[in-house]
């Protein structure tokens, strides 16, 4: 099967794809995988670089990491929607939470995937027609992991201030310190 055959499975004629991630090895692997599936791939490793590329040539598809070295991937999603409303954007993140997913969708993202996501997951999210439902994850996060993710998100929102985080979570500061000292549950 040639790249042209694969590309014919993509909706529309514009197969431009912008990949935005600050993890260089992951970005390179995903770019190669998406090129083999018929996309014309461009990459960016920062919010600033991505926004500049969006302003000069808005893509038909985009895959954007939530946390980048110089800011938030949601800024890239906003820039994409300002320039081209029909862009199919997928958010990738290692910190999955409902509030961020809702914000991403409100800004125009069509899907939200937790890392590690493979090229098949990304391709399926980009090409999924709006009426189809995504399959439930085979290995969903445990309740302990969801709790840990929520605590980490609040901790980051409080700029890593343990006392403020404990106050917002209505928990004792030392209890929070013990939780933060442990590894993430599976």
UniProtKB/TrEMBL annotation:
<keyword id="KW-0597">Phosphoprotein</keyword>
<feature type="domain" description="Response regulatory">
    <location>
        <begin position="16"/>
        <end position="130"/>
    </location>
</feature>
<dbReference type="InterPro" id="IPR011006">
    <property type="entry name" value="CheY-like_superfamily"/>
</dbReference>
<protein>
    <submittedName>
        <fullName>Chemotaxis protein CheY</fullName>
    </submittedName>
</protein>
<feature type="modified residue" description="4-aspartylphosphate">
    <location>
        <position position="65"/>
    </location>
</feature>
<dbReference type="GO" id="GO:0003677">
    <property type="term" value="F:DNA binding"/>
</dbReference>
<dbReference type="Pfam" id="PF00072">
    <property type="entry name" value="Response_reg"/>
</dbReference>
<keyword id="KW-0902">Two-component regulatory system</keyword>
<dbReference type="InterPro" id="IPR050595">
    <property type="entry name" value="Bact_response_regulator"/>
</dbReference>
<keyword id="KW-0805">Transcription regulation</keyword>
<dbReference type="GO" id="GO:0000160">
    <property type="term" value="P:phosphorelay signal transduction system"/>
</dbReference>
<keyword id="KW-0804">Transcription</keyword>
<dbReference type="InterPro" id="IPR047772">
    <property type="entry name" value="ActR_PrrA_rreg"/>
</dbReference>
<keyword id="KW-0238">DNA-binding</keyword>
<dbReference type="InterPro" id="IPR001789">
    <property type="entry name" value="Sig_transdc_resp-reg_receiver"/>
</dbReference>
């Amino acid at each position: 099967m040639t790249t042209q055959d694969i590309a014919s499975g993509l909706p529309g004629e514009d197969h431009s794809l912008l990949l935005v991630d600050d993890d260089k090895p992951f970005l390179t692997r995903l770019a190669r995988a998406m090129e083999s599936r018929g996309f014309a791939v461009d990459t960016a490793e920062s919010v600033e670089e991505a926004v500049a590329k969006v302003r000069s040539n808005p893509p038909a598809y985009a895959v954007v990491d939530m946390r980048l070295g110089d800011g938030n991937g949601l800024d890239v999603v906003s820039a994409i929607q300002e320039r081209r409303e029909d862009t199919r954007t997928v958010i990738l993140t290692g910190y999955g939470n409902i509030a961020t997913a809702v914000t991403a969708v409100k800004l125009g993202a069509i899907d939200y995937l937790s890392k590690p996501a493979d090229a098949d997951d990304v391709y399926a999210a980009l090409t999924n027609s709006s009426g189809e439902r995504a399959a439930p994850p085979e290995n969903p996060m445990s309740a302990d992991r969801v709790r840990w993710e929520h605590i980490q998100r609040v901790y980051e929102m409080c700029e890593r201030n343990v006392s403020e985080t404990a106050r917002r979570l209505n928990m004792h500061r030392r209890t929070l310190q013990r939780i933060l000292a442990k590894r993430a549950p599976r």
